[in-house]
Design brief:
The relative contact order is 0.20. By secondary structure, the chain is of the alpha+beta class. The chain has one domain: Trna Endonuclease, Chain: A, domain 1 (3-Layer(aba) Sandwich), CATH 3.40.1350.10. It is globular and about 45 Å long. Helices cover 32% and strands 38% of the residues. The longest helix has 20 residues. The protein contains two helices and five strands; from the N terminus they run αβββαββ. A five-stranded mixed sheet has the order 1-2-3-4-5, with helices on both faces.
């Protein structure tokens, strides 16, 4: 379990650095509510972006991208809605566009990493 947490933290740090290099502003990392956690909340210009970070050290169990099941997609939409509701309750409603992205991180045994950013990876109805 400890190893998984370390892998996840490393992947989230790499994802945040990737976003910052692309000009995104990081609003929050590991935002939690009753429904769960959003790995990264950022802005891309005028767009609010909810980012799910998925990491794998091998493809034995599939790629990081393949781990985003329909159930996980529904959960991400619920979490985004919860964050937006929280902003509204604080009197600061988000009136601009928003989307859900996935950043897939493949961590190699030699310590290198490949980061793949999938914009609009989860579509809300």
């Amino acid at each position: 379990m400890h190893d998984r947490r370390v892998t996840g933290q490393r992947a989230e740090t790499l994802a945040a650095l990737h976003l910052q290099r692309q000009g995104y502003g990081i609003i929050a990392r590991n935002w939690r509510c009753a429904q769960g956690e959003i790995d990264i909340i950022a802005t891309d210009g005028a767009t609010l972006v909810f980012v799910e970070v998925r990491a794998r050290r091998s493809t034995r169990q599939g790629t990081p991208e393949e781990s985003i099941t329909p159930a996980k997609q529904r959960r991400l939409i619920e979490l985004a809605a919860a964050y937006l509701q929280t902003l509204e309750e604080q009197g600061q409603p988000w009136i601009g566009p928003w989307r859900i992205d996935v950043i897939a991180v493949r961590l190699a045994a030699d310590g290198s990493a490949a980061v793949r950013h999938l914009s609009h990876a989860v579509e809300a109805e």
